[in-house]
Amino acid sequence: MVRQIACRRVYEETSPQDGKRVLVDRVWPRGMRKEEAHLDEWLREVAPSTELRKWYGHEPSRFSEFRRRYLAELRDAGHREAAGHLRDLAGHDKLVLLTATKDVDHSQAAVLADWLTKNR
Fold first, then answer.
1. What is the pLDDT along the chain (120 residues), one digit of tens a residue?
2. pLDDT value at position 86?
3. Side by side, which strands form the sheet with 41-42?
4. CB environment 40-52: b (16+ within 10 A), e (fewer)
5. pLDDT for the residue numbered 91
6. How many CA atoms lie within 13 A of 3 on its CB side?
7. What is d(CA 32, CA 11) in angstroms, rounded to the nearest whole number?
8. For a Cys staple, 48 with which of 14, 52, 58, 65, CB 3.0–4.6 Å?
9. Which long-range contacts does 109-114 make (Cβ < 8 Å, 24+ apart)?
10. Closest by CA position to 83, among listed 93, 96, 73, 94
11. For residue 38, how many other CB atoms are within 10 A of its CB?
């Protein structure tokens, strides 16, 4: 069973209701010290490849294609173990997927939340 999954910017305030807090970016958030992030995990292996991330460039007009390519990456050997681990986390507790991007709705965190909800 997939429990509540939320997406937020890593720079936002933490909440006692967060559950597990997992950073899903490949690159550490600019200007943030590790102790300020209050993370349970940094799961960089589930993030989009560097090539895909650079191609996307957080351009909303490319989001549909980014989503398609990223979902394909989640099935490859390099992402499969991390994606499975994230699915396990989502099945046991509330989960907050954290990203540094300003547009959370058009981020890998949003794609992951949707994917986790549909792939119980």
1. 446 899 999 999 998 888 899 999 999 999 999 888 999 999 999 999 999 999 999 999 999 999 999 999 999 988 989 999 999 988 887 999 999 999 999 999 999 999 998 876
2. 92
3. 5-9, 95-99, 20-23, 41-42
4. bebbeebbbeeeb
5. 85
6. 15
7. 8
8. 52
9. 109/7, 109/8, 109/24, 110/7, 111/66, 111/67, 111/70, 111/71, 112/7, 112/24, 112/46, 112/86, 113/5, 113/6, 113/7
10. 73
11. 12
Say if CB 103 and CB 60 are below 8 A apart. Answer: yes
SS3 119: coil
Here the tokens at position 83 are 């994606």
Instruction: Give the Cα separation of 104 and 114 in Å (integer).
Output: 13
User: Are 86 and 22 contacting, i.e. CB atoms less than 8 angstroms apart?
Assistant: yes
* DSSP output for 33-70: -HHHH--SEE-GGGSPPHHHHHHHTT-GGGHHHHHHHH
As a dihedral over the C-alpha atoms of residue 34, residue 116, residue 89, residue 94, rounded to 10 degrees, the angle is: 80
